[in-house]
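Hi V.,

You were right to ask for the full record rather than a summary. Here it is.
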Amino acid sequence: MIDVLYFDGHCARAHAARLRIVGHELLIEREGPTGSALQAHRHPVAALRWPEPLPQGQRQLPLPDGSMVVGVDAAVWDRWIRSVNLPIGWMAHGMSHWRYATLAVALIALMALSLGRWGLPWVVEEAVQRVPDRLEAEWGATGLAELDRRWLRPSLVPEAQQQQIRSAFDDLTARAAQTRDERLSWRPVRPAYRIEFRSAPARFGPNAFALPGGTLVLTDAFIELMADHPEAILGVLAHELGHVHHRHGVRSLLQAALLSMAYAIWIGDQAGVLATVPTYLTTAAYSREAEREADAYALALLQAGGLGGEGLAVFFERLSCLDAHNRPRPAVECHAKARAERPSLLSIGISSHPASSERIRFFRAPGAQSARP
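Predicted structure:
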């Protein structure tokens, strides 16, 4: 026998009890109310989830009827388990040996890496295909509203200039839609989009971004930086439209949501998942692969519309010549920086980050020139 504490599942008061194994059953004997006769409870040994023999702590044995047995002295409990020849499960046996425990940790890490490398992308890709346009538009509206609340202000660019940019981009996409460019034949040339203009704090620098649902945002600093090069403005809009076409924003949001959900399930805080959506939409950055996909889409769209990649190459050159405060560097410093620059291994989007030489070379390659005769 072994002395334990018994909790009946109805109140927090502990009852003194004794355990013993009778045949294939666990017999729990405890005193009844006000010192009355012993009460016995029986449970099949095989149906119980026996506690693991950890180095410290009490031993808690949950019972099928909602009650619980607690062995306060772990060493006494473990000796009793051995004396009645109860089988120790393979997991508990493994946890008591550091080699098995290390192997288990390694296997869990391998499973987690495999899930992140293959499982999660597959789930996200399947989910992306099932997101309705209405929901995607709502996500984009939520993100823009959050940005307007936190950082963005109404644009100071004249309305006539805004409309001129919108019309020029509409004309570009319309011309591209009429071509038989094989690079665009397998994809919709013009996913739904809406161009917005905003003023942003100076620390944001010349910026442009796309939100789920097709909202393309240009900042006043970006318009000012490329005012003398309208083809670059069209090129940046084409790049952002590439993000919309490939649904990079939706894919990133779903991936973050799934990771948050898994974490919430683990720690038991599901309520925090939805609360992170607006913040994520305002801080997300695209991967290097996503940026390359958007670059390829932009170049195909520009060439199908009669332009080339020169405008985007100029934009990235100018972006790389801004200092930490988004002010132009002297020409000598800018050229020295360009010569010293190596292809970046980081994700570089159209934001305050410097453009990589790899992207400038991509848009200046012979095959990226204007398709005009």
